[in-house]
Specification:
Nucleotidyltransferase, domain 5; 20% strand; alpha/beta; 5-stranded mixed beta sheet
Length: 299
């Protein structure tokens, strides 16, 4: 059996095919498509999958998206600022041409599911995946299930306390100085006038500020969701020196309130980079496709 996976990001769309397996997927073929407009990008997705008779398809998608199966707009990308993609019927378009079960979720929920199936959280019942890139988003698996509800999680938009040395107004168009508005890659660039990857000095005050905000977020997620592993991915987290700063600040904020080794001496193995790296979202597509196939088999 063949499983198709899609990691739909705001800049590019990764598509791939793998054979069904309980082990970490081996990619048979893959391609990268520019996220231009639906009229241009969606036909290219179908063209890639056309040579394969896939048995299931999973889509890890940028959002916001509608995940309510009873909604008339299930499978839509909804209020995204991405030009052309607002109210796009992503799943419906593909379902018209692909005769297979389709799993659909946020890119970060997909990444969390993939890391718990095949990655650094394998064998655990819960984990949280936070991507820190141009924006910030989070997904979580709790007791083996992805978190859904009224909406999917929007972890990038929680409020955090201001760092004493930060007078930056924030970049979020809706909330200004929420977590994304203060600690995303875009916020780092706007705050410093330098793209994050070009800030080399590990002692730069920008990193102290960003790590403070991310640590506050990690503490909030830990106290509310109690995940067994917190995974921090995305372009910003490729700056390895951020991890020690965040871990140290998390311990400082918690102040030994939670007497668990994972939050004390074992924190280096609790707050971690994803095993699946930049492919976490794509493997999330595979995981969602496999789960969709499983649901069909049960019914």
């Amino acid at each position: 059996m063949l499983i198709g996976g899609i990691d739909a990001g705001g800049t590019s769309i990764n598509c791939a095919v793998t054979k069904y397996s309980d082990k970490k997927p081996d990619i048979i073929q893959r391609t990268n498509i520019e996220t231009s407009t639906p009229d241009e990008s969606l036909p290219q997705i179908l063209e890639f999958f056309k040579p394969y008779k896939i048995d299931a398809l999973g889509i890890s998608c940028f959002g916001p998206i509608d995940l309510d199966c009873d909604s008339s707009t299930y499978g839509f990308i909804t209020t995204t600022p991405k030009p052309g993609w607002r109210n796009c019927d992503f799943v419906g378009y593909l379902r018209n041409e692909i005769d297979a079960p389709i799993g659909f979720d946020t890119d970060v929920n997909g990444a969390a599911l993939a890391e718990i199936k095949w990655g650094i959280a394998k064998g655990l019942k819960s984990c949280l995946y936070l991507t820190v890139g141009t924006g910030i988003g989070g997904g979580a698996v709790v007791e083996g299930n992805l978190i859904h509800g009224l909406l999917h999680p929007e972890m990038g938009h929680i409020l955090v306390r201001r760092h004493n040395n930060d007078d930056f107004e924030g970049t979020c168009p809706n909330h200004g100085d929420c977590l994304e508005g203060l600690a995303s890659g875009l916020a780092i660039e706007k705050r410093t006038g330098i793209k994050g990857q070009n800030i080399k000095d590990e002692n730069d005050i920008a990193w102290e500020i960003v790590s403070s905000y991310l640590a506050q977020a990690v503490v909030s997620y830990t106290l509310i969701l109690s995940p067994q592993k917190i995974i921090l991915g995305g372009g910003v987290m490729k700056h390895n020196h951020l991890f020690p700063l965040i871990r140290s600040e998390v311990k400082k904020i918690l102040n030994s309130y939670l007497l668990k080794d994972e939050l004390l001496d074992g924190i280096n193995n609790y707050i971690v980079y994803p095993d699946l790296g930049a492919d976490a979202g794509l493997f999330g597509g595979f995981a969602l496709g496999i789960d969709a196939l499983g649901q069909v088999r049960k019914s």
